[in-house]
Amino acid sequence: MRHFVEELEELKAKLLEMSSLVESAIYRSITAVVQKDELLAREVLTNEARVNQIEIEIDDLAISLLALQQPMATDLRLIVSAIKINNDLERMGDLAVNIAERALDLLHEPIVKPMVDIPHIAALVQSMVRKSLDAFVARDGDLARSVLASDDAVDDLRNASFHELLSFMEHDPRNIRQSMSLLSVVRNLERIADHATNIAEDVLFLAKGIDVRHHAESRV
Amino acid sequence: MRHFVEELEELKAKLLEMSSLVESAIYRSITAVVQKDELLAREVLTNEARVNQIEIEIDDLAISLLALQQPMATDLRLIVSAIKINNDLERMGDLAVNIAERALDLLHEPIVKPMVDIPHIAALVQSMVRKSLDAFVARDGDLARSVLASDDAVDDLRNASFHELLSFMEHDPRNIRQSMSLLSVVRNLERIADHATNIAEDVLFLAKGIDVRHHAESRV
Question: Does the structure's ipTM exceed the value 0.95?
Answer without folding.
Answer: no
